[in-house]
Design goal:
Length: 236
């Protein structure tokens, strides 16, 4: 379904994306067609087109004869996330340096201004969504359809996890948040100066900054099973 501005379908599409990214719609929760039709003023056919697009982008899982659900976040999927994220983020930043246009750089600066304002506001949702927007722009800068698809899927789970990372009193100190903001500024500077090696390094440093908080989200205290492996059953 092409996203058309100003239509009920487009409004439903954008609102469902936001609700999924901000955990208003919890991972794995069902998406009841009748409820959504009433909420967005859509009949079932256009609603299903919206859900199909969201499914193709990774926000929603469609199950035959079982309807739609918000994409889950299990230990298995998050294991893949941990393995893929640093590789994709660094490759995206390297290609962004090579291919960014002046208009895209300006858009990235605007996204960074919005992210900085969100940090100052202590608004968890604004923090997560403006960070998401910043990194999605770098994906478009890279100009690689394969990497962009992978980045977009990663950012769905990264942004959902970031709702914990950016929450006040979550353990993410002001110093960490200030460093994250500074790293964004440094990425922009690398893109403008053409320093792709440093940009790739910054992507890894930026990932490392949030990794500890992400691990706390995935592996809360007291859970000792390795990521991606179910807990061992104790014998009777």
């Amino acid at each position: 379904m092409p996203s058309v501005r100003g239509t009920a379908k487009s409004a439903a599409y954008e609102d469902l994306k936001r609700a999924i990214l901000t955990l208003e719609r919890e991972p794995g929760s069902p998406l009841e067609e009748s409820e959504l039709c009433d909420q967005y003023g859509l009949s079932r056919t256009p609603l299903r087109e919206v859900l199909q697009q969201l499914s193709g982008e990774g926000y929603v899982t469609l199950q035959l004869n079982r309807g739609a659900r918000v994409s889950d976040m299990t230990h298995y999927t998050l294991r893949d996330f941990f393995l893929a994220a640093p590789l994709i983020y660094s490759a995206v930043l390297r290609l962004a340096v090579q291919n960014a246009t002046p208009r895209q750089i300006e858009a990235l600066k605007e996204a960074q201004d919005a992210f900085r304002d969100a940090l100052n506001s202590s608004d968890t949702t604004a923090r997560a969504l403006t960070n998401d927007q910043f990194h999605r722009i770098t994906g478009h800068m890279a100009g690689n359809s394969y990497l962009l698809a992978s980045l977009d899927r990663l950012l769905i789970d990264h942004t959902r996890i970031a709702m914990t990372f950016f929450r006040p009193k979550s353990g993410a100190t002001d110093d960490r948040l200030a460093l994250a903001c500074q790293q964004h500024d440094d990425m922009i500077a690398c893109i403008e100066s053409g320093d792709e090696d440093r940009a790739a390094e910054l992507a890894l440093e930026h990932w490392a900054l949030s990794r500890d908080q992400i691990e706390l989200f995935v592996m809360p205290e007291g859970l000792e099973a390795p990521l991606g492996a179910p807990p061992k059953q104790k014998s009777a």
